[in-house]
């Protein structure tokens, strides 16, 4: 875990000369989102990618990182007596393969069952399944057209489906695999400010620090209201984000630690550009959202 020796202690003041010196050094090493919000008001896609990469995440890793240089396997997929040639990375999961098969067959990934020496589980990789070159994988499932052509489900079946869907939708952020891995790996920071659940406070006069990002790097949030900028600071760099570049801020309490939140700051137009911050004190969450988005954007 990165050292936090360069971050100001909670409740301490920041010497403007020291802060300016520190910022100038960082700016010489890293390219910030903008030199002036007025001259270049929005982050570019390349700048967003740079910020997310430094935080240990990419724009497309909302679910889970997947190998990009994996050995590819050439095999066949059989669906309704049709044979499809498939070339797919050996270290990608069955779940990813289903998404690929959906494009080939029209069978939604959620309605597929893949058979290879038995039922293949979604979380297993093709390598773990021992899929070899020339292997034949059977796909069992129905296209949407097939589904719509059958009789309507009963009320009981619809209710069961609604409950199952609601359970998936309501899965807390802290229980989702991508965030659970981060929380388990790095734990609670020793120097994070004390969190207070069910309470709201104004932002402190000093940068909010002690939290970390997806890579375990300590994060410092500095709100430059006069410049309409949010400064995302780590030991290695400081990125100046124009407030109007930030499209949304989402947060949820961490299970069993509701005095702290996981917060996603959306730096661009899509959810894939969310910058995740862990262990945000609950009492500052509403003030952070208000500072970035303004009260009028709350729902």
TrEMBL record:
Region entry Disordered: which residue ranges? 1-39
Q: Name one Pfam family in it.
A: PH_UBFD1_C
Pinpoint the Ubiquitin-like domain residues. Answer: 75-140
- Per its UniProt record, what InterPro entries does this chain match? UBFD1, UBFD1_C, Ubiquitin-like_dom, Ubiquitin-like_domsf
* Residue spans of biased composition, Basic and acidic residues class: 16-33
Q: Which GO terms describe its molecular function?
A: cadherin binding; RNA binding
This chain's protein is named: Ubiquitin domain-containing protein UBFD1
Natural source organism: Biomphalaria pfeifferi
Q: Print the organism lineage.
A: Eukaryota, Metazoa, Spiralia, Lophotrochozoa, Mollusca
């Amino acid at each position: 875990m990165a050292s936090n020796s360069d971050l100001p202690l909670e409740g301490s003041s920041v010497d403007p000369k020291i802060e300016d010196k520190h910022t100038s050094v960082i700016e010489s090493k890293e390219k910030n989102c903008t030199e002036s919000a007025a001259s270049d008001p929005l982050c570019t896609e390349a700048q967003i990618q740079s910020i997310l990469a430094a935080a240990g995440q990419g724009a497309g890793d909302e679910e889970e990182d997947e190998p990009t240089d994996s050995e590819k396997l050439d095999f066949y997929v059989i669906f309704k007596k049709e044979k499809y040639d498939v070339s797919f990375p050996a270290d990608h999961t069955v779940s990813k393969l289903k998404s690929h098969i959906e494009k080939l067959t029209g069978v939604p990934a959620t309605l597929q069952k893949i058979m290879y020496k038995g039922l293949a589980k979604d979380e297993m990789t093709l390598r773990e399944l021992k899929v070899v070159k020339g292997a034949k994988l059977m796909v069992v499932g129905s296209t949407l057209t097939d589904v719509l052509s059958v009789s309507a489900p009963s009320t009981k079946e619809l209710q069961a489906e609604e409950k199952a869907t609601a359970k998936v939708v309501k899965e807390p952020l802290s229980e989702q695999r991508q965030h659970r891995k981060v929380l388990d790996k790095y734990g609670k920071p020793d120097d994070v400010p004390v969190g207070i659940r069910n309470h709201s406070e104004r932002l402190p006069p000093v940068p909010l620090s002690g939290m970390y990002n997806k890579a375990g790097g300590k994060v410092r949030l500095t709100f430059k209201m006069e410049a309409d900028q949010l400064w995302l600071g780590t030991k290695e760099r400081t990125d100046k984000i124009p407030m109007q570049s930030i499209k949304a801020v989402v947060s949820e309490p961490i299970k069993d630690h509701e005095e702290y939140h996981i917060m996603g700051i959306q730096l661009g137009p899509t959810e894939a550009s969310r910058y995740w911050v862990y262990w945000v004190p609950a009492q500052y969450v509403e003030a952070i959202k208000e500072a970035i988005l303004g009260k009028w954007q709350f729902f």
